[in-house]
Amino acid sequence: MLDNFLQTISHYKMLNNGEKIIVAVSGGIDSSVLLNLFLRIQNLFDLQLIVAHLNHGLRQNESDNDEKFVADLCVQNKIIFEAKKINVKDFARKNKFSIEEAGRICRYDFFSHLLTKYHADKIATAHNKNDNAETILMKLIRGCGSFSGIMPVNKKIIRPLINIERAQIETYCHENNISYRIDSSNLNCEYTRNKIRNIILPQILSINPNFIDTISRSAKIISDESNFLNQLALKNINSNKISVTKLKSLPQVLQKRIIRIIIRDEISSKHINSIIELLDKPNGKKISLPNNITVEKNFDEIMFFYNHDYNFEYELKLNQITFIPQLNKFLLVSDKKNSNCTKIFYCDNINKITVRNYRCGDKIFFKNFGHKKLKNIFNQNKIWPHIRQSIPLLTVNDIVIWIMNTDIITNYDTGKIYFIHTWEDTNDKRCTLAT
User: Fold this and answer.
1) Residue 93 pLDDT
2) Residue 128: which of 180, 97, 87, 170 has the closest Cα?
3) pTM for the whole structure
4) 17, 75, 135, 269: which could join 145 in a potential S-S bond, CB 3.0 to 4.6 Å?
């Protein structure tokens, strides 16, 4: 199996001499074998290994024991060990993800953090040939419309076991007396992947014992064709929005590929078709997708974005410097002018000063026009509705004075003059953090 491991590394150009590798180790049989193989080739490639373990907190003491097992492995082999514990269930609930998707996001976020911390070159994960087959079956069952498997190399992520079947891994493990942990949640068929692994795939293998090889070859053909389509689609993408006119002028197969690439997530054909139908609907129409994604049509464009809660409000005091996190700036409203003056306004008497986000119904006063709705100003400037929610406003006595980060400020000119000062000097020690 070592030869197969090295052949995969060589074929996909996964390693260079002298690299730092983050090895993802859960403690299960696959990742324990992966670590063993990396230890065997460590001197051959002059590698520095860092083991990463994410404790998902899903199985209480069992999860903690997994972490201790991996920590002990690292002590025995004198390897740097990094662990993090997170409540994946809470993360999934708060962000409306499935447990499986939440776990994947948390893992790769942790791995990316370690890449930066150690200036590492690659992340190695233990995905194998069976995992690849399971992934393809999951996509087929869900109707994703994309049947490509797990990529052997994806940017800095490498998967050296991707051409090795689980049966080979188990044989290698037992022949080399490699210890590992058994994850009891892998037997829980409430999870889609476990149902495929424990029930569906064994039934298929009873019909075609070579199914894993067969589907892997098919996936390679599909992947090559998919990469060609991706290259065509990428020529039409430069942001998270695209012209409706331009999209409608393309063949539907490219329309769908462009949508998939922009979303950068697994999505069903049903949702893809809903987005295609959105192209012919009036401005302002939008649809909600899984994983907190919204697609909206406006200004002859469709935009893809994640939903966020943009509500914020900070109360300021006259002549006191305050840091506003949403602006990443210091702000001072003063009755005295200095060299940092950004804007001026007039007011008879100040009782309350706030910085807050835009709210439906907000207006601003102009001397020659009277009150004008901010919604109309945003429409004139083609500012998307979901972006408006995050736009900061300076209000005095609950009246909008200034649309911050723009030149739009009230020109009411009766009363005492006040000065607005903003700056970005992060070393300024005079600030008071807004709370």
Assistant:
1) 82
2) 170
3) 0.60
4) 269
Report how far residue 148's alpha carbon sits from residue 140's, in angstroms, rounded to the nearest whole number. 10
Give the list of residues 6+ apart from residue 281 with CB closer than 8 angstroms, or none.
Answer: 297
Residue 146's pLDDT is 63
104: Cβ contacts below 8 Å, ≥ 6 apart = none
Enumerate residues 6+ apart whose C-beta is below 8 A from 319: 332, 333, 334, 335, 336
pLDDT for res 144: 65
Q: Shortest CA distance to 34 belongs to which of 12, 14, 5?
A: 5
**DSSP code of 197?**
I
Among 299, 275, 279, smallest CA distance to 287 is for 275
HSE of 21 in the Cβ direction (CA atoms, 13 Å)?
A: 27
Instruction: Give the span between the Cα atoms of 263 and 246, in whole angstroms.
Output: 18
Positions in the chain whose pLDDT score sits under 50: 426-435
Report which DSSP code applies to 61.
H
pLDDT single digits (tens) 208-217 = 999 999 988 8
The predicted-structure confidence for 148-185, as pLDDT tens digits, reads as follows 788 899 889 999 999 999 999 999 999 999 999 987 77
CA 162/CA 152 separation, integer angstroms? 6
| Strand ranges across the sheet with 416-423 | 341-347, 416-423, 329-334, 322-324, 432-433
* Rounded Cα distance, 412 and 365, in Å: 7
Residue 182, pLDDT score: 86
The string of DSSP letters for 119-151 reads: T-SEEE----HHHHHHHHHHHHHHT-S------
Q: Quick one: CA dihedral 312, 317, 323, 329, positive or negative?
A: positive
pLDDT at position 124, please? 97
Which helix H or strand E contains 333, and what residues bound it? strand 329-334
